[in-house]
Amino acid sequence: MALFISPARKRFDENQPLYYPLGRALTRNALKDFKGSKRKETKILFLGCYDLHNVLLTIACKTTNNGTLNIHLNHSCPYSLARNALILKVISSPNFNVNCSEDLKYLWDLWYNLEWPQTTLDRFEKDVNELIKTGLPEHNLEFDNNQLKDLKDMWRNWLSSLTKLTKSSEIEKVLKSRQEFINGGGRIGKEMLEYQAKMNKSPESPMLRQLTSKLAVAMKISDFPEVLKSKIIKEVERYYRTGSCNSRITALKSVAVNPTLLELENALSLAKTPRWRVNIYSCPFTGFLPLPLEKLEKNEENIATLYCQKMLKNLVSSYRHLKNCVNFHLHWSDNLQFCLSGTSEMFDVIDSSTLADEVGLANLIVSSSPRLDYRSPDALMITESADGWFSIASSIAGYIEEALCAPLSMIPTLYGVRPANDATLGSNVITTRGNEDGFPEITLTWRRAPRFENVPLGLSPSIELYMKNFEKKCYFMKDETTLDELKSKFFRCYTPLTYCYMVRNLVSHLENREDLQNLLLKTNFSKKGSQFTLTKRTIEARANQHPLTLVIANQPLTPEIVNLFQDNFRAPMLRVMVIPFDRWIAKKKSGSIEKSSDVYFIDNFYFKIHGKMADFVFPTLQLIFVLPEEHGLKPNHCAVIMEMYSNTVMLFLGMIDDMEQETLEVPSSTKKQPSSCSEMAPQDSFMQAGNCQESPNDFFFNISVHTKGVPKGLYVSSDELRPCEAGHRVTFSLAEPEGVQPLTLCFPHPILVDFIDATLRRPDRSIRVVLKKAIHEPWPYDFNLKPKWDVDQMKLWKESDPKKKDDLYFHVANQKGFDRLKNYLGLNIFGNAVHLPEVRLLSPIENARNIIGTILMQVQPDRCEFFEIHKVPAPGQLQSVSSTNDVPFFYIRAHLPIITSPFSSPMILLSVLDTRLSEKFIKNGLLNAKSSKEDFERIFRPRDKSNKTPMILWTNVDDSTNLLRYVFRLNSTKMKPSTWQEENLPLGKYSPYFATFVSPLYLDHFPVENSDSKKDSKKFTCTGCGKKSNATMKRCSRCKTMTYCTEKCQKADWSRHKLMCSVMEPKNLVVRVQVAE
Prior knowledge:
Blueprint: E1 41-47, H1 53-60, E2 68-75, H2 78-92, H3 101-112, E3 115-116, H4 118-134, E4 141-143, H5 145-165, H6 168-183, H7 190-200, H8 206-219, H9 226-242, E5 256-257, E6 262-263, E7 275-276, H10 303-322, E8 326-332, H11 335-342, E9 349-351, H12 356-359, H13 361-368, E10 380-385, H14 396-404, H15 411-415, E11 417-419, E12 442-448, H16 461-474, H17 485-490, H18 496-507, H19 513-522, H20 533-543, E13 548-556, H21 559-568, E14 574-580, H22 581-590, E15 600-602, E16 606-610, E17 620-628, E18 637-643, E19 648-655, E20 660-664, E21 686-689, E22 693-694, E23 698-706, E24 712-718, E25 726-736, E26 743-752, E27 757-761, E28 766-772, H23 780-783, E29 789-790, H24 808-813, H25 836-840, H26 844-862, E30 866-871, E31 890-900, E32 906-914, H27 915-923, H28 929-940, E33 951-955, H29 958-972, E34 975-976, H30 979-984, E35 993-998, H31 1011-1015, E36 1020-1021, E37 1028-1029, E38 1034-1035, E39 1043-1044, H32 1047-1057
Parallel strand pairs: 1-2, 1-9, 2-8, 4-8, 9-10, 29-34, 30-33
Antiparallel strand pairs: 3-5, 6-7, 10-12, 11-12, 13-17, 13-20, 14-15, 14-18, 16-17, 18-19, 21-23, 22-23, 23-28, 24-25, 25-26, 27-28, 30-31, 31-32, 32-35, 36-37, 38-39
Helix pairs in contact: 1-10, 3-4, 4-5, 8-9, 11-13, 13-18, 16-18, 18-19, 26-29
């Protein structure tokens, strides 16, 4: 069964393999967000480990020799694993001296350069021969002995290929093949490149220029001196032309081509001659970016190479210093299959940052998250999306919800994990423009969520809806999908087995797992699609551990088939179609097939190239799939392999009856996760929770009370630890009758403990419970995060030349996606009544960004320290707060100066008083009113600043106020209070004060202005119809802000505009608060 366990759709990569042996752009320390650094042993899994850059960077960031790092490297590509094993052998050797220039040059050639001098070739042959004879070093490298033989065959293949690759004619062929591959756009496609060439009208390779430009942007050299910038760009161009880069331009004579960067002819490949298949965006510089101006040797020629070699030297030095407490375990397996069945290890950190776009985010989470160590609350998983997320959403939060087919608040239940950082708040760092659409590469960190305990999950309407949407994407049929082309490509990795694993993951921690699993698997949400009936029966039989039929088809890999794969497809997405032979003949003639109940699709199967088998002259393509034991196929059913998007038939496999078939017993699952439901001994009196119905905002369920006496005195408590206002556990207990044990329930998403609605119904002996999810409250885990930022030790924010992009104005404006403060609402006149209509239209996140930007801009130039946040007056109401008894939501004191956050963004410390929380604590007797007033006067009305009038800021709706409060509270969990705050703020469990900060909430993508819109930009825009014109338009006579092209447009828009239209006040009116003495 291990052959069919991976849920991702099979891609035939053998025909167009693509490697990243030089690393990828988003290199990062995998332990950066891991808080369990004091553990004696830390287990890290690098899933899909293309190269060792992330691994060495993670080891280099280890701050102490205490504790052991057990690092597991898995990759589905044997070529990448063979390279990694060789590099580890080299840098682990006692004879390797990283401070020796010759040793470092050898490592650089081995890792990055296409052409080698004689000295590198000699050392390579020696090292590979040692690997073949003695295997891997035993002290800290471990490999599966069953796979070591295959690995040695690959190393032998490298050596044997050198007889060709040392000939000058072969070197020229490889170099030419590499240039053709790059100029052909790798997998981008010829049509796109021809279009680019036509648009550019230049004899220069458009792809070469695109690659150079893209890398120059990533290097962040736009502010470098022109001479230096020109040098670096020429160096990059030189690498893309030659495939090599050296610290000195006068390099040694090339005598061989690096075989580890080539696809060589062997039993696992379609290559007839050595060919270049390195991803065109992969290069030596990507893992070391951006380039810091102050660390570059500006007088040298190959400036970037010298810097990168120094960084590599530092990484290897750190590894050699710590290698005695680092153990490596190498694995060669399908990445998802490895997590599902290839290992029994549980990991503290899983870095799967290269896989989300390749196998699909849902596949990655349901396969790898169960391998996170449930005993470690700090365990985390890392995913990344480089070029796929923006095809389905315009924000990171939207990407997560669309890819997982559920809102963020439902993901802990459905997937058992949660994003470690709130995706709804945007980005912590300024978003780079990324690709041509303005979307950057993103990295997400995931943590385990608690499981349900003592409460079964029911199939609520919300869960049914999300599972229905998810199933539709897994049972993919192009002619029935309503997705556009980009979205359909994003979900192409999802298969029926993805849905099966998602269901299994959902029910794995539930008391009623079998009932819910059978219900979800048997329910055909997507009523259409009879082509998947056979697949659904197979999945149900497998889930119920019924015998299956193993079907094996072997086909000779003839030259005609090889040419079909090579000429027509680039890693096609495959699907097996089982069809009656007569319908197959009709399809060949007509080119299409009518839907029928006896035609079936199979999306999960094993398909691979094997060496020559006994009965075949050619290498063999082997395809294996499973069917139910009683599949019901007729003798005339045959099987073909299709390319799922073009519906092109790639290979006829033969008649099902002619294929090898054997019965396959499904082993019973022996892996047991810790039970989430407490075992209770039989009792006469007890409470029991019924099925929990979950929605995006609530949990609601009934608790049945089994007792002879009348239940009385319901008491509800939680695991809330102040100042956190949320918890995962709720305990219900009764005063009467005696002997009824309290019932403690646990929920994946934290709930607001102040909004627990529990009603004891004596007649039917039940408790009706509604729990509100803590959507705008930090998770309990966040309040326990350590270490916290020491704000007293942070560097001051330094203003620079306003023309430069690190200016404060630039950071504030980037919350809106602007390069400058164009149309940034309310920066200097936020309190001006003319802006109140616009404030009323802001979304909650825009309102929060507006307030944060205003505070930063008022603090720096005007040194404004005091702010108040009120609800914006309704249209027609009095605009001045001074004549009302309105109490602000928040009093804010800003603490100068602005400092620099750990993300290199401007950050201002705040002391915030939550007035509603203060009133609540006073009312409940948790806070003394007199001392509270004295604290307020001391903090917000100090005598030395008595002339400081607070500035008024506005929120428009309750959601905006709650979101802003959430930002204040979330930021307070990240930092230790400053010395001033510790001395002056009455902090504690029942304090209404927050020692917090604000920093820009940047957009998580960079809006790119359409070139056509630039041409058509007009001075006036009609609010009603959207028409743009340079001709003067009439304004609303009441508010003087909205413009209309005609009276008809104004009347049509009035139903919307009247909600925010208000009488125009004098332009210089600024709302102030008068404080009574």
